[in-house]
Amino acid sequence: MSKTIQLSERAGTSKSIMKQGRKLGRIPAVLYGIGKTTVSVEVNEKEVLEVLRKNPRAILQAAIPGSGVLPVLIQNVQRETLTGKLVHIDFHHVNMNESMNSMVKIHFYGEPTGVKAGGVLQVEMYEVEVQCMPDHLPSSMEVDVSGLAIGDQLLVSDLVFRDGIEVLSDPNSVMIQIKTVHEEALESSETA
């Protein structure tokens, strides 16, 4: 929660004003939360891109002129479809004294023994929903899949988070599985 991001009030909400701001590297955004009125703000594009690259679910300190510093979370990012350029950001004010729901990215590492034996790795889920206090929210979770053989699968219930973090995603959901090439070919032909 150490990263501070500067938010400034938006000059206006017309398309021409927002377009001009984007040319100058300012992305239109909104800040909202429980007990807070929604505020139209803008943020420096380079600052936001750095946060999104390092930890998109980090709790940030948003410095807002006239309002002081508030803990916020990037709730939603809108991008242009073709170019991927940032269009709009939603910031959510976080109450540090209440538990919150959030998504946590899962990073799989290692080469499964099943893949070495000719199997195919199929990833079904890259993130899970958790509930915890804001200061316990992990940025991501590393999962070693090198022990998975052909026919093995990793369920949400197999994930082990530290105390204070409750997983809300369906515990029976398959996150990753190792299939034979034959199974993969059958599934492809059935969906075609």
Description:
The chain is an alpha+beta fold and 192 residues long. The protein has 2 domains: 4-93, Ribosomal Protein L25, Chain P; 100-191, Beta Complex (RNA Polymerase Alpha Subunit, Chain A, domain 2). 18% of the residues lie in helices and 44% in strands. The chain is built from 4 helices and 13 strands. Strand 2 and strand 3 form a beta hairpin.
In short:
The protein has 4 helices and 13 strands. The protein is α+β, with helices and mostly antiparallel strands and 192 residues long.
Secondary structure blueprint with pairings:
Elements: E1 4-9, H1 15-23, E2 26-33, E3 36-44, H2 45-54, E4 59-64, E5 68-79, E6 86-93, E7 100-109, H3 113-116, E8 120-123, E9 127-132, E10 140-144, E11 153-155, E12 166-167, E13 174-179, H4 181-191
Name the shape in a single word.
Answer: elongated
In total, how many domains does the architecture comprise? 2
The low-confidence runs, each spanning 5 or more residues with pLDDT under 50, are none
Order of strands, main sheet, comes to 1-3-2-6-5-4
What structural category arises from helix and sheet content? alpha+beta
Q: Terminal Cα separation, in Å?
A: 47 Å
Q: How many distinct helices?
A: 4
Give the quaternary arrangement of the chains: single chain
What is the total tally of β strands? Answer: 13
CATH superfamily of the largest domain: Ribosomal protein L25, C-terminal domain
Instruction: Please write the string of helix (H) and strand (E) elements.
Output: EHEEHEEEEHEEEEEEH
Mind telling me which CATH architecture of the largest domain this is? Answer: Beta Complex
Strand content: 35-45%
Any idea what the radius of gyration is? Answer: 21 Å
Give the class-level CATH name of the largest domain: Mainly Beta
Main sheet specs: 6 strands, mixed, barrel
